[in-house]
Amino acid sequence: MVKIAPSILAADFLNLERDVKLVNDHADLLHFDVMDGCLVPNLSFGFPVLDAVAKVTDIPLDVHLMIVNPDKYIERFAKAGAGLISFHLEAADEAGKDAGEYIALAKSCGVKAGLAIDPDVPVERLFPYIPDVDFFLIMSVFAGFGGQKFIPESIGRIAALRTEMERIGIVKDIEVDGGVSASNAHALVEAGATMLVAGSSVFQAEDPVGAIAKMRL
Ligand code: DX5
Ligand code: ZN
């Protein structure tokens, strides 16, 4: 069954505890977007917020690192309670490193390791990492901001990744992030997505719990 990961980037920060508790019993993961203003043109939040959120939820924290040099922080996020940590292939490129190093580091810290790409990175670049990674994160908007419009070509990219996994007989989870809602959830799951991140379509909905349920249909 598909896993739903509400993104707290779209929550009401003045009522963060209320919003986290609202989705806690209905979501499978809680998505936590960390932005550094360097890999992406925006800043979000970091350890103090994660520490606070971890106290009021019992579902796994899915930390999405949109930062340069994620290897500096993976261990700290793992210790702070992350269950899954994803980082961008673009960050590895920028550092002149192989993303395999980040994957190995995350795994050695006891978390699930996810490799993410923005919509302009060829999906084939993920193929060499299929054996090592725990999950992939396909951005369906350009990383950096919540509330953007879903890029429909993302569906074909997910299908291509899924097809390659099946071809080599190693199937890993595929998470999709950006502009996800009940209107595209079905097509995404059909294409091979197994984890759906949803920010505004959950937290800005009149009925966040109902919005999560609709994405499972
Ligand atoms: C964007 C973030 C997303 C964001 C999704 O860079 O990675 O996780 O919270 O927000 P929506 O669902 O509103 O597009
Ligand atoms: Zn995200």
Structural class of the secondary structure composition?
Answer: alpha/beta
Shape: globular
- CATH class category: Alpha Beta
What would you say the CATH architecture is? Alpha-Beta Barrel
Helical fraction equals 25-40%
* Oligomerization status of the protein chains: single chain
- The CATH homologous superfamily is called Aldolase class I
Order of helices and strands: EHEHEHEHHEEHEHEHH
What is the CA-CA span between the terminal residues? 10 Å
Count of runs of 4 or more consecutive helical residues: 9
Number of strands: 8
How large is the share of residues in beta strands? Answer: 15-25%
- Taking all Cα atoms into account, the compactness measure Rg is 16 Å
Indicate the low-confidence ranges by residue numbers. none
| Average pLDDT level | 98
Task: Tag the structure with descriptive keywords.
217 residues; TIM Barrel; 8-stranded parallel beta sheet; binds D-xylitol-5-phosphate
Protein architecture, described:
By secondary structure, the protein is of the alpha/beta class. It has a single domain, classed as Aldolase class I (TIM Barrel, Alpha-Beta Barrel). Helices cover 36% and strands 20% of the residues. The protein has nine helices and eight strands. β7, α7 and β8 form a beta-alpha-beta unit. α7 runs parallel beside α9. The protein is globular, with a radius of gyration of 16 Å. The structure holds D-xylitol-5-phosphate and zinc ion.
